[in-house]
Amino acid sequence: LEEIRDAHQARMAERCRNPFRRARYVVLPLFRRILQRSDDLALALAARGYREDLRLQWPPLPISHLIPAVVLVALWISGLVR
Q1: Nearest partner of 26 among 14, 36, 15, judged by Cα
Q2: How many whole angstroms separate alpha carbon 24 and alpha carbon 31?
Q3: Angle, to 10 degrees, between the axis of helix 2-10 and the axis of helix 19-47?
Q4: SS3 69
Q5: DSSP 8-state symbol, 15
Q6: Which residues contact 44 (CB under 8 A, 6 or more apart)?
Q7: CB of 13 within 8 A of CB of 26?
Q8: Other beta carbons within 10 Å of 32
Q9: SS3 for the chain, per residue?
């Protein structure tokens, strides 16, 4: 944003009284930079093998792992554990 502001001042755009025209000098380069960064991110994700259609499947959690959690929650609710 700082580079855009410096380029904006170099073009003497603040001499323009129309606020929409002044905003155009900032918004268009900023929008271009946002699109460039999103394109770079998409390429980086593709290079690392990211695919949207693949979902992470967690293995089913055994009930024996849930029992300590239920006991701790029950103790916490009863006020024995802080």
Answers
A1: 14
A2: 10
A3: 140
A4: helix
A5: G
A6: none
A7: no
A8: 11
A9: CHHHHHHHHHCCHHHCCCHHHHHHHHHHHHHHHHHHHHHHHHHHHHHCCCCCCCCCCCCCCCHHHHHHHHHHHHHHHHCCCC
Instruction: Record the tokens describing residue 49, joined without a space.
Output: 């093998």
Name residue 64's amino acid.
Answer: S
What global pTM score does this model have?
Answer: 0.46
Q: Does residue 48 surpass a pLDDT of 70?
A: yes
Q: What is the rounded CA–CA span in Å between residue 38 and residue 19? A: 28
Residue pair 41/66 in contact (Cβ under 8 Å)? The answer is no
Question: Tokens 């380069």 — which residue?
Answer: 29
Q: What is the pLDDT of residues 16-29, one digit of tens each?
A: 677 777 777 778 88
